Amino acid sequence: MTGFGRFLTSLRTMVAAALMVAALGAGGNLAAQEHGGEASEDQIDIVHHLANSHELETPFGLVSLPRWEPIHIGGITLDLSPTKHMVYMLLAAILVALTFLLSARTIAREQARGRPAKGFAGSMEAMALYIRQEVVLPNVGHHGEGYAPYLLTLFFFILAMNLLGLLPWGATATGNIAVTAALAVMAFLVIEVTGMQTLGPKGYLKTIFYLPSGLPGGIGGTFLKVVLLAVMTPIELIGKLAKPFALAVRLFANMTSGHVLVLALIGLTFLFKSWAVGIGASFLATGVMILELFVAFLQAFVFTLLTSVFIGLMRAEH
To answer: How far apart are CA 205 and CA 209, in angstroms?
Structure first.
C-alpha cells in the first residue's frame, strides 16, 4: 500500500504524543479517583471502571502496574508511570501496525499472482481505500495524497482504541480527555502547519487578521479597518481553537456516555435485586452495546472526516 512507511511513522508519532499528554492528565484523574467514595456491595462504581488507574482488570483479578517516581519540572508534575489507558493505547498501536504489516504482505503476494486479495486482508484494503478515496482526497483537495497516511493512521488508531474498550475487562483510552486532547492537538498542528505551507506567511496571517475585500479608503476606511481587526481577530483565533476543542470533546463524550449507560443499566439489577429487572436490563444493555459498536466506527470516521475538512478549508483559503 502506498505511503505505508509514513503510515507507521504517523502511528508512532501519534502514540507518543497521546502518551505524553495522557501522562500529564493522569495525575489529576487518578487523584480524583483515589479521593472518591467506595461503592457498596449493592452498587456499581461506574467511575472506577471508566477512570484511568494504575491497575489492569483481568478475569483473574486486578494486576498492578509498576509505579515510578514523578518528574517535577517547574510547576508541572509529569507522571510517566504506565496506566491502564496507556497500556491499551500501546496495544491499539501494536494491533494496527501488525494488522497492516500482515495485510500488506498478503496483498503484495496476491497481486504478484495476478489476483485481488481476499478475506481479512482484502477487507482491510477495502476499508483503507474507502477512507482514502471517499473521505481524505475529496475533502483535503488537490494534491491531498500526502495527508492520507496521517489521516488513515488517525482513523484506524482511534477505531482500535474504541473497539478495545468494548471487550470484557477492556478499557477505552478515548474515554480519557487527555488522550482525545492529544489527538486534537496533533490535528490542530497539522491544520495550522498546512496553512503556513500552502498560504505562505502573508496568506496565513490573513486567516488570523481578517479583513474583507472592498473596504473604502481614507480616514474613515482606516478607522473601519481598525475596528474590524479588533472584532474579527479574536473571533478568528477562537475559531482556530474551537476546532480541536470540538474534536476532543466530541470523541471523549461519545465514548464515555455509552459506557456509563451500559454500567447504569447493569447496576439496576443490583439496585432492585430482581430477576425480572436483571433480564430486562441485560437486554437493554445488549442493545446499547450493539449501538456502541456502531458508535466506535462512527466516531473514528467523524474525527477523521472533520480533520480532513479542516485541512481542506485551510488549504482552500488561497
So the answer is: 6
